[in-house]
Amino acid sequence: MNKPLVHSLDARYYTDPVIFEAERTGVLSRTWQFACHQSQVENPGDYLAFEMAGESLFCVKGRDGVIRTFYNVCQHRAHELVTGSGNTRVVVCPYHAWTYELTGGLRSGPNLKKVEGFDRSKVCLTEVRTEVFLGFVFVNLDPEAKPMDDWFPGARAELQDWVPHYERLKPIEWVEIPENCNWKVSVENYSECYHCSLNHPTFATGVVKPETYDIQPQGYCLRHTTECQNLDSMTYAIDTSRAHAEEYSSWFLWPMFSFQVYPGNVLNTYHWRAVDADHVVVWRGWYSIDGTDDEVVRRLSVQDRQTTVAEDITLVESVQRGLKSRGYVPGPLVLDPKCGVNSEHSILHLQRWMREAVDG
Asked: Are 300 and 262 in contact (CB under 8 A)?
């Protein structure tokens, strides 16, 4: 007896502002999200503000060497504390000059000694769960969240093997890519290659062997693997003495981050920021050892933007328009029992996580 077909999610999951709001206060607030690279808060007092799940947050490095994350709001009368990035000895609220230590505790404020019974030790910025994962700072608004290694088993050790110089890497370029689509449309597009041979000629004829490409779950990680070919055609030299130097792989960390490693142990990343039900911004991160300008990485960034990225923008924006059509009826996912490049089994897992995030 044939198994029942598995159909794609209803269009409302991608178009309904009510569902987006449920995600903002739900899954996007209870999962590990990228904040910054540790080199962006390298010295004591370095801070960087960012937005996530509708909240303003900031990371700051303490004099004890610990990177902490706080909600970007004064505990006095709710003024935002910092903007952008910089370095500071203490955090001073621009509204009434309440002053906080880099550990979040209240240090002082004008005329506070006159307030009878006031105990400044009971006032502290609200801290957010923070982990440094191979030099990348992630945060989770859920104070009870399990560690990243529980969410993404094996990913840290694998990446350490694939990027043995990760401790020396620093970002040299962030490519900002606004997309007129729901964040899940963009993430799904990244997480399957059923569309690749038709839409990504560089992929189909380049270094990876398309027939060996596969994506499998690893906890809440989707691991992309493939064999490679034509390495002699690479536009940069590869040191084959390093492990995995002649391979490509990717680790997508649900819901909005991915590590990619190109042949030659070249690391690049994606991270997504959901704006609303119809808009997402994707950043491509490119890195080099010690942050030195690297011609190879710069060329890869340009090539990527002109090929895969440009091709995918057209695809995901068309999908978002189609999801709003009254004529759309969700079709069955193509689930090949043998998996592989022409199967959507990775979408099966993604959509299960998406459905659970909204429906419980």
From this structure: yes
